[in-house]
Amino acid sequence: MATPPAPPTLLPTIFTEAECQNLIDLAQREDWLVSSDSVDGEPAWELNLLEYPAGKMAANRLRSAAADSPLGTSLTGYMIYLRKYSPDSRLSLGSHLDNSKLSFTVALNDDYVGGEFFYVDANDNQQTVALKKGDAVLFGGDLLHGVTPMQEGVRYSLVMHCK
Hints:
This protein has helices spanning 17-29, 53-65, and strands at 9-11, 46-48, 78-85, 93-96, 102-107, 113-114, 117-120, 126-129, 136-140, 145-147, 150-152, 155-162. By secondary structure, the protein is α+β, with helices and mostly antiparallel strands. It has a six-stranded antiparallel β-sheet with strand order 1-9-5-12-3-2, covered by helices on one side. Strands 4-10-7-8 form a four-stranded antiparallel β-sheet, with no helix packed on it. Strands 6-11 form a two-stranded antiparallel ribbon. It is globular.
């Protein structure tokens, strides 16, 4: 029998409120990618951060935070992007696995209803992780996870997948 994936690790206050707001402001100035998401075919509502200094800063911060993780010792590359969820754009993200060795989700705001990060535990129960602005959750790409439906407001998150 295979060993179940480890549960996610909460990394509190990885980013300051000002850093979170700067990333949201960047996203609001740029064009969102709304082509089909590979998970469910819905519009992705993503902004690739690889070309922005703020994205490089965020990636360095997250990679540093992962250094203590057994998964973090041999990371070779990454993708980093912002995601936007709202009742009028991307409502949710169903259960899925990431094509990564290690993944992060960072809450850039917390003034919305719904849109919670969830994962499926070893007993096949859905568990939510309460994220406050600036908090990150770190998990292996083999962990089944998603985002519950949005009810009110706009949820901005930073996502990074590491190889």
